[in-house]
Amino acid sequence: MKSAETTTGRYNEAFNESINDPASFWGRAAEEVAWKKPYDRVLDDSNPPFYKWFPGGELNTCYNALDVHIEKGFGDRTAVIYDSPVTDTIKKFSYSELRDRVAKVAGMLKALGVVKGGRVIIYMPMIPEALIGMLACARLGAIHSVVFGGFAPKELAVRIEDAKPTVILSASCGIEVKRVLQYKPLLDQAIDLSSHKPDKCVIFQRPQAKAELKPGRDLDWEELEKAAAPADCVWVKATDPLYILYTSGTTGVPKGVVRDNGGHAVALKWSMKYLYGINPGDVYWAASDVGWVVGHSYIVYGPLLTGATTIMYEGKPVGTPDPGAFWRVISQHKVKALFTAPTAFRAIKREDAKGEYFKKYDISSFQTLFLAGERTDPDTYFWASDLLKVPVIDHWWQTETGWAICANFRNLELFPIKAGSASMPVPGYDVKILDSATGKEMGANEQGIVAIKLPLPPGNLPTLWQNDQKFQESYTTAYPGHYFTGDGGYKDEDGYVYIMGRVDDVINVAGHRLSTGAMEEVVAQHPDVAECAVIGAEDQLKGQVPIAFFVTKAGVNRGAEEISNELVQMVRNQIGPLACFKSAVCVPRLPKTRSGKILRATMRKIADSQTYNTPATIEDPTALDVIKEAAQKIGYAK
Fold it and tell me: Beta 482-491 vs 448-453: how paired, if at all?
């Protein structure tokens, strides 16, 4: 097995140059981007931890995503495929058609007073207008802040308060699997709660529900766009913000992750080619939402900067209409690579464990499955790998980084895949495993804090929106000279990185520090378990003890108690008696965010009888009641 240190391949060459001579590495990558004015230098490292990439350079991200391809003669190439099983709609936009609509919407925003550096909040469902609105802001040099459509009014209000938008773009409704969710009442309530009031709200009326417009403030999107004069690109500095994206689950003053224009364009274009193996004209699908960082990076900007075709999917992995939904999209649109969350594949596996729906479709175009969002458990990896017969790549990154920290590479060097590992550090990321107490680097197979030596590569957050102090407190103070990821993990003897979950997922059982992620791995191996979460609950005697909550696969008829006993024995055999693993509870569903992350921190508070807030990102609030009831049955959540 090769390691990052011993391989003589392209990866080793690229990685070493990116760490030892970042100016050379990223300067060459920057040649792929169209600059209005060349940058003065690649990296300004004079004021750590506030690093600047490509200072002095000027560009426009929308120009690089649309106009540049049209000027090269590719205006007729398909830019976006909108696929909406919930409305039975498929619509395609060429690069020329998309540019023309974006220019009109940019003109619409300009007429409403949106200027370079001004903010626009986008509160929309997965429809083309959300993507168009983002690109229109970029065209004007304005800063967009996308808030997941349907977010609770209180959380939306906090974001309005912090970003202070001139204009809010929204739609009349979003469409869930079995219901229409009206957005306008939520938006109105959020504006009432916020001390900052936008000048105008532009509402895209969908036929499924018409919104009542408030005279003087609310305007009809289609009418306004139709009357608008197209706007040209406004050139901005490479270091100017492109967008603000608020981290999910924030309380009080939220953390607004800032993304700059220059570093973002360079990094995403590099990643599309070398990490995802996507070339101009290829069809790429990130099955996420524009409200998340994945949607920003790999539904909107990454594919379009590359000149590829991106898919915007308004649907679910199951239920719209069945567990074959993903295979239908891949087959119909000739998708080359899919990027989604492990939870999507767990949902498909639960409904169609034998892959009967998969057999109905020709997916010969398909070359790679990329998983991220939370750790891919080995059971899900093996199931997907056996079914698809293509590389299944687990890669790890964060809202703050904007693109992958650790990954495998379709167009650099494809390493042998190890189940449970996010593979190797991506060029630009000097990943270290540090002792939590001393900050010293750990050896192979020793668990510690996962940190990244500064500077972070292009595309990462330069700071938080109007809060340099919070940026330092959150990310750079704990381990000076390093970015604190908040995750724990280790590197093995070959240099592969294993992310075991958030640092607060490491529990202390009678003095033994144990990873709940490792226990989840064991529980997920059980043939009847579709998905699971292991949390640490407070215990007077041992400090903490682990509890597993698990969901069985569809069609499993065995008794839950029998399965529970088997899980206890499996953990005892594979982790050891010191884990004190004695409780495994069967539940019908787990509480998750809309992006598929299991809400373990909230589950832990429920088990410990602590007060908790229902996270704004939750998909189904009733799932928390399910956990509370299950925890009470075994003596917790009193």
Answer: antiparallel
> Among 69-73, 458-462, 542-546, which stretch is predicted with the lowest mean pLDDT?
542-546
**Residue ranges per domain, the chain?**
510-633
- SS3 label, residue 341: coil
Query: Which alpha helices (H) appear in 352-445, and where do they start and end?
Result: 378-388
E-assigned strand segments in 540-593: 543-552, 583-586
Q: Which of 241-255, 294-308, 469-483, 543-557 has the lowest mean pLDDT?
A: 241-255
pLDDT tens, position by position, 544-556: 899 999 999 999 9
Angle of CA points 474, 479, 485, to nearest 5°: 50
CA-wise closest residue to 589 among 622, 614, 558, 634: 622
What distances in angstroms separate CA 287 from CA 24, 85, 178, 397, 595, one per listed residue?
Answer: 34, 13, 19, 16, 10
- What stretches of 575-608 show up as alpha helix (H) in DSSP? 600-607
Asked if 595 and 292 count as a contact pair (C-beta separation under 8 A), the reply is yes
Residue-wise pLDDT for 227-260, tens only, equals: 999 999 999 999 999 999 998 543 446 789 999 9
C-alpha distances (whole Å) from 86 to each of 151, 177, 220, 351, 631 are: 20, 7, 23, 19, 35
This prediction's pTM: 0.86
Contacts of residue 515, defined as CB under 8 A and 6 or more positions apart, other chains included, come to 447, 488, 500, 501, 505, 506, 507
Lookup: tokens for 237: 């500095």
Q: Please compute, for residue 571, the number of CA atoms within 13 A of its CA located in the half-sphere on the CB side.
A: 28
* Kind plus residue range of the DSSP H or E element containing 328: helix 325-333
Evaluate whether 323 touches 351 at the Cβ level (below 8 Å): yes
CB 545 within 8 A of CB 402: no
Q: What is the DSSP letter of 618?
A: B
In this structure, which amino acid lies at residue 623? A
> By CB neighbour count within 10 A (0-12 exposed, 13-18 middle, 19+ buried), where does 628 fall?
middle
Q: How far apart are CA 150 and CA 217, in angstroms?
A: 20
How many contiguous H segments (helices) and E segments (strands) does the chain have? 20, 31
The residue type of 560 is A
CATH match for 510-633 among 3.30.300.30, 3.40.50.980, 2.70.50.60, 3.40.50.720: 3.30.300.30
Q: Which of 578, 503, 509 is nearest to 540 (CA)?
A: 509
In contact, 235 and 219? CB cutoff 8 Å: no
CA distance 380 to 226: 48
Q: Residue 89 in 3-state DSSP?
A: strand
CB burial readout 434-461, b (16+ within 10 A) else e: beeeebeebeeeebbbbbbebbbbbbbb
Is residue 577 classed exposed, middle or buried when 0-12, 13-18 and 19+ CB atoms within 10 A define those classes?
exposed
